[in-house]
Amino acid sequence: MEIRLFRHARPDLSIRLSIAPRQIPEFIARYDQAPITGAPDATALDHARHCALALCSDLPRAIATAEALGFGPERRLVDPVFAEVHLPHAEWGWPRLPALFWAILFRFLWLAGYAHDGESIGAARARARLAAARLICAAREHGSVALCGHGFMNRLIGEELYRLGWRGPHHPGYRYWGCTHYRVDSPPEHP
Length: 191
What we know:
about 190 residues, alpha/beta, Rossmann fold, 5-stranded mixed β-sheet, two-stranded antiparallel ribbon, about 40% helix, about 15% strand
């Protein structure tokens, strides 16, 4: 059985826009709705061809990525459990710095336990366990499945698959269109 974790395509919104920390939720809402740019390369398309089914988050960039990889509605299951881990923020109106700076800063703070108006690391890990279980069930039924997901949630899912004995890297990659491959010969009965 195989599970391939794809990171979504690049959204068409610059992460270099200057924003204040209290504008993070507004920026994320725009990022979540932005169309994707570019097309998958031959390697990504080859990985997708090996999968009978794609599961993806309910965010437009994940659905559009699945479509671009050749997973039409009949070969795609959408589930919010696979959505990106919610990014915390602060209510400061200053300073205005690139959104990328704030995303990195608040993601590090999140890893240290800060979760203001976001999802705690414990809640995200619990959701990743549920997501991994759903992927494993789909892989049992279909043999080889893809997940069109997001950087941090894919990382947490990859850690869970690795913990459950699936062969593959401990941490999936973060490259847009990137694919991380996990396989197992005989999975445990219950993830």
